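Weekly structure sync, notes
Attendees: PL (lead), two postdocs, one rotation student
Agenda item 3: pending single-chain targets
PL asked that the sequence for the first pending target be pasted directly into the notes so everyone works from the same version. It is reproduced below exactly as submitted, 213 residues in total.
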Amino acid sequence: MSTRIPGAAAAMRKAPRQARSRAMVDAIVEAGARVLDARGWAGFTTNEVADVAGVSIGSLYQYFPDKTALVDAIRRRHFEAVLAVLRSAIDGQAAPAGLAEALVDGMIAIHRDFPALHRVLLDLPNPYAGEAAHWAFQDEYLRLYGVIVARHRGPDDADGVAAHLLSSAIEGVVHNAARRGLLAHASLRRELLNLVCVYLGIAAIPAGRSATA
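Predicted structure, written out during the meeting:
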């Protein structure tokens, strides 16, 4: 299943149609993530993003009318990465401990590459937060966590509270660790993995070992 968020081009001037233009937009969004991570919002400029992406400023403005639209695209790409981690954990891990490990490692990994970027995204207001794409992400996000809960705790989460608690726990730990520069600490991974295993009723993975070992 695709991880693409519906309405992802809402803040763009136009959606890329051809493979070449899609590759260019991907390069611009990647460059935007790098610049936002390095400079923060105050130092974030479309000129530097274009330079890092290796495209002209005119090419950037063909797709993104301003830097707020570009930040929206960066945020949407993060949404897609989060959903991809959840689907991969569900579809790729038969062993319960393996699913927990894939979930924790995946969530840490997508926040660890650009930790300062995620601090900026958390702090910046999102002018597009009320649109359908945001709520589509939230619905799918909680649905996938619900699949994980049902698999390991049984189908007793009709009101979605358990899925909400599990997602909030992981999200809160990872986001706060990103703010504090703790995502690379092995102890943080170990404690978060233990938390997930306990909540889901999964046998904890011994320290220093992997579920796939």
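Discussion points:
- The chain has nine helices and no strands.
- Residues 67-92 form the longest helix (26 residues).
Action: rotation student to compare against the earlier draft before next sync.
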